[in-house]
C-alpha cells in the first residue's frame, strides 16, 4: 500500500478524523486514569494504579457497573422483543405505508433528549396521565410511584432505541426470500417452525447489529438515567460525570470510564464469539 | 403414487383473472407438464397445487379426495423451486434432512435416508458444504433430493432448469425424469421451454390466458394441435389460410390452400374458416412445377444437420422448410414443394 493507492488516499479523511477525535482522546484518557490525584489541579504529575485498585476493591463500584451492564442488557432484550414484530410488519409494507411506518419508527429520534425526558417526567408523575389512565381503568387504586425508578429508565431507553433495532432487522427480513418460507412449509413446517428454523436465524444479520447498537448506547446513556432514575440509584455514566465535573477527580473518573468501556467491549466480544457460527452461516 | 385431478380451478387477483377454469388430470406415476409463456397461469396452477395460493373456485383432488382445505404443510408434496430455495444457513445434509427432522425421526434414520438420497442424485461427499459453496447444478440436485427424501405423494417442479446453463440443463433434466420414473411419483412440471416439455412429459397442458388450450400427449400436442397458439408454442410451424373448407369424412376435409386443392386431416367439426399447419420437416424441396406448391427461395441457412429455407409462394405466404443439408439452393431460385400428407393438419382459426 502506498499513497498512490486510491483506496488508501480516499481513506485519509476518515483516518485523520478517527485519529484526532478517537485515538488521541482515548490515549489521553488512559493516561489520565493512571495519574495521581491533584491537590489544586484536577490531576497530579505522577503515575499510579490506585484508582483501579480502588474500583476493584470496592463492592460499591462493582454493583454500579453490574447495574449498568444488566440494565443495558434488559433494555436490549426488551427492545428486541418490541422491535421484532414492528420490523416484521415493516418488512411486509410497500409504498406509502412503508414511508409512514419509517416516519413513525424514527419519531423518537426527532425529539431532543431533554424534551423527551421531560415528557416522560410529566407522563410518569404521581398525578400524570399514565397514573390517571391506570386509575381510570381501575387496574390500580393508588397512584404508582413511577418516576425515579429503574423501570422508567428502562422504558424510556427502550422507547428511544427502538429505531436502532427495527431498521436493521427490517432490512434483514426483507432479504429473506419468500420461497424459503414456502419451501419449509412444503416440507411440513408449521408457522412456528418456519419462524424458529428459517426466519429467526436468517434475520440474525439484522438482530446482531441492532443488539450491539442498542446495548452500547444503553450502557453509555447519561441524560435519561440522570433525569428519570433519581438520586437513589447510580449508573456508571452518572458516576463518571459526577467525578469529572462534580468533584473534579479527573484520574478517578477516567479510570471508571475505562472500566466501563472495557467491560462493554468484553460483553460485546463475548456475544460476538457466542454467535459467530450463526452469523457466519446466516449472512447473505 | 397418486392420481391428481384439477377441476375448473379459478384464481382471481383484484381485476386480473389468473386462472379461468383450469382442468387437468395426472394419472398415478405420470409427469404432467404445464407449458406456456409467462403470465399464462402455469405457475399459479402449481402454487395452488402446493397450497401456497388459495383458489377462488374449482377443486383439486388426490386419489379422489379434495385437498383444498389441507394446509400446505400437511399436503405431503415435494416442491422444487426455480431459484432452488435452499436454506442458506443449513448445510447440504441439513437442508435435505430438514423435513425428516420435522417428522421427529430418529437421528440415525435421518442420516441413512439423507445419505441414500444424496447417493441417488450424485451429491456424495458434499453433505457438510453450505449451499453457497456448491455449483448451481449441485444446488438444483440438493433441491431435488430435499423433495424426494420425504417420499412425496406428488412432486411439483417450478421451472427447475431455468437458471442452469444449457449443458447442465440436459443432465439435470434426465436425472429428474429418471428419478421420477424410478420412484413412480406423480409429478407436475412447469416450464416455458417446449423441448423440455416434449422430452420429459407423459402429458402436456399448453396454457393460454388462464386456461388449458390443449391437454394431450407430447405427440398429439405437436402433430395435432387444436389451434394455432398451441402449434406455435410447440415448435416451428407454417400456417396457410384455407379457402373453401369442406368436410369429406370424420375429421377429414377438402381444402384449397395457396392455390392447391388438398385433402387433409384436422380437428373434428371445423365449421368456420380454417388454416393448415405444415411443420418445416413435413415439406420437401422438388423441381419447379413438380410439387404441390411453387415458390421462390427468399432465404437459406446451412445449420450443419439441416438446411433451413424460407420460400415465398405466389399468393405471398411464406413457408419455412427444413431440407436435407446437402441440398443446393440459391436465393431467388424457383422451386417446387412437396408435402408429406401424413403431417398436414387443419385447425379452425381462433383468436390468438
TrEMBL record, chain A:
GO terms for biological process: transmembrane transport. It comes from the Bacteria. It comes from Salipiger mucosus DSM 16094. PANTHER family: ABC TRANSPORTER PERMEASE PROTEIN, INNER MEMBRANE ABC TRANSPORTER PERMEASE PROTEIN YDCU-RELATED-RELATED. It holds the Pfam family BPD_transp_1. The lineage of its organism: Bacteria, Pseudomonadati, Pseudomonadota, Alphaproteobacteria, Rhodobacterales. Its main location: membrane. The chain crosses the membrane at residues 7-27, 59-87, 99-126, 146-167, 206-228, 248-274. It is a multi-pass membrane protein. This is Putative permease component of ABC transporter. Keywords: Cell membrane, Membrane, Transmembrane, Transmembrane helix, Transport. It is found in: Cell membrane. GO terms for cellular component: plasma membrane.
TrEMBL record, chain B:
GO terms for biological process: quaternary ammonium group transport. Gene3D superfamilies: 2.40.50.100, P-loop containing nucleotide triphosphate hydrolases. It holds the Pfam family TOBE_2. GO terms for molecular function: ATP binding; ATP hydrolysis activity; transmembrane transporter activity. Residues 4-234 form the ABC transporter domain. The keyword Transmembrane does not apply. InterPro entries: AAA+_ATPase, ABC_SmlMolc_Importer, ABC_transporter-like_ATP-bd, ABC_transporter-like_CS, Mo/tungstate-bd_C_term_dom, P-loop_NTPase, Transp-assoc_OB_typ2. It comes from the Bacteria. Keywords: ATP-binding, Nucleotide-binding, Transport. GO terms for cellular component: ATP-binding cassette (ABC) transporter complex. SMART domains: AAA. PROSITE patterns: ABC_TRANSPORTER_1 (PS00211), ABC_TRANSPORTER_2 (PS50893). This is Putrescine transport ATP-binding protein PotA.
